[in-house]
Amino acid sequence: MAPTQSLSPRAPAWALLVLACFLLDCRRLKAQVQKLRHRATTPAAAAATTTQRPSSDLVSTTIYDGGLKPGWQDWGWGNHDLLHGAASIELSNYGGWILWNPHLASDVEGLLFRMKAPASFGNFLQVKLAFQKNDAPYPAVDIGPERTKKLGDGWVEIYVAWVDLNPSRLPVDQLTLHARTPVGSDRVLFDKIVLTAPDPKAKPPAPAKTNKVTLSVDCRAPGHPISPYVYGVASGGDPWDAGPTARRGGGNRASRYNYQILATNVGKDWFFENVNDVNYRDFLDENRKHGVFTAFTLPMIGWVAKDGSSSGFPVSKLGEQQATDSYRPDAGNGNDKDGKPLRPGPPTQTSVPADPEFIRKWVEVINADDRKTGGRSVQMYILDNEPNLWNGNHRDVHPEGLSYDELLDRTLRYGAAIRAADPQALIAGPAEWGWTGYHYSAKDMESGHVLRPDRRAHGDIPLIPWYLGELRKRHQATGTRLLDVLDVHFYPQGSNVYSPAADGPTAALRIRSTRALWDPTYTDESWINEPVRLIPRLKEWSLQNYPGLKVSIGEYNFGGEQHMSGGLAQAEALGRFGTEGLDYAFYWTLPPKNSPAYWAFRAFRNFDGQGGHFLEHSLDTKMAPTVSLFASRDAGAKHLVLVALNLEPDTGTQAAIQLSGCAPVASAKRYVYTARSQGLTTESQPSGSLDSDLPPYSITVFDVALK
Fold first, then answer.
1. Each residue of 225-234: pLDDT tens digit?
2. Is residue 51 predicted with pLDDT exceeding 70?
3. Measured distance CA(394)–CA(421) in Å, rounded
4. What pTM value is reported for the model?
5. Domain coordinates of the chain in residue numbers?
């Protein structure tokens, strides 16, 4: 996310569609192929060579073995045949073969495959990795004799160390094999394409340096309960083995969802198109089946999709535009050929009105369904999604910037409709996107925050405190509470933090950026350039303006999910949610399976694969500048779970962990995750002690029984 107030901090549009709609997924992925084809046919410098063969024959992932394996897609652009055993590929005219998988494993040591090519081609082959979400430089590796081993009958086995293909350990979702020199039209055969895993018995090299720190847990201090709902995720995918306790249905698409026809408008994310969408009942049923808390977003913008096919800026009505959907040529991006925004047509072009009565009826339908099952499916309703960005994300129906008064008016009207339909439900809002959305209206931002005409017209009070104060006044006047939860979104604004980038400075900044959640001494290292201390700030705003509200972070993500820095940032955030007493939090969207972010989640929710989790009561701890320690206990004070994070990338830590005022340790188990791990692995722990060596960039869980 670029450091600008006018853009949503959410993931790129295509990423949202991949997660939420298979139909749009296919469109976006096909569009990406054209870009990839250009990249693959552009010669690149060869990478450095690591010729050592794999340290083990353990296969991490099989890509192709007599056929393409499940989960992999063929994006090849040369003539080819994958139906008869070995893949037969024509690589003339710099042809190539792209193999794509969005869930590529991170625990990779090397690429191993077999090839049979005409001898006349010479050393023609080049291998390269890529990742759709960024344009980071991945080295192109030339395949020469030093990487090959003859097998007979013209076949060779080729091994490329992963460090050569991906020295920065960046996330990857595609592998390209292509000709770097001109070759003939004779086919090249490929088979037995696998990714090898590190030898699990091989110990990582000892760090060059080791720190010594003393950490402590205070069992005598009162501590406080940890909300069970800070371990939430968003909708989509299969999150269950990560152990989430809550799940949110939301995002840009929720603003225009029509529950009657199961369609929505995706707005700016993809050419302002109406699309057929998932059935919301499936989401609610799945959550109920798994016994999790459900937060569900309801539209408040006033318009929902009228069908699954219309578009907000049709070329047939508004003329030629800067870009169109290649699969719906009449759907434009809403900008003229020079990139200037077009004036939208009437909202009825895509939408039908969705007034408070429409929403009341929807909540009544949900309640009627609940009566049939005998349980509640929605615990919290959220008032739309990032309303201060409507004039960008949904400008086809709401081109004007939201004002203070409009936000309050819509909250009062739609909140009253929800309360009338479901008096026991929690209502959350305003679901604002980030820093400027907390302090100014979109109408302010159209003029600039220095002028801020809308805020000045309302006593120059920041938007959220003003909003809460007005809702409190209405509550006092009517006796009806229309807001129970103060909900906002948070994304780090530092350069490249919310991205897959994982170079040293970015990785370090990503981890530091978590201090914006809580630390009053931390000046945000972005255009914000002042302390954010988000959770204490939100609590203070509530206490001062509308006491009794709970606090939620409805979306957050610190980026780098596939890198250890992203895993550590995620673990740091989950730990701080507990220490700071946050009530709800929802990761956007899901930690990718087996990524460091995923294992960070598992450290708190399922560290042993059998439901072992961080406990219900937060204990005070003494930390170190480079080591965070989070501690929890059960109600009987006989069971502790600690999570220690070594935030140093290259330095191990000898940690002496003291328990103050606790009963003696009866037994302890230790689970460790590092960048080289395939998961949280059990390691021996000396009897009666919690002292431990913490590897560089690691997450360590201590499961402790007290006497």
1. 999 999 999 9
2. no
3. 27
4. 0.79
5. 41-196, 209-222+621-706, 227-309+350-606, 311-348
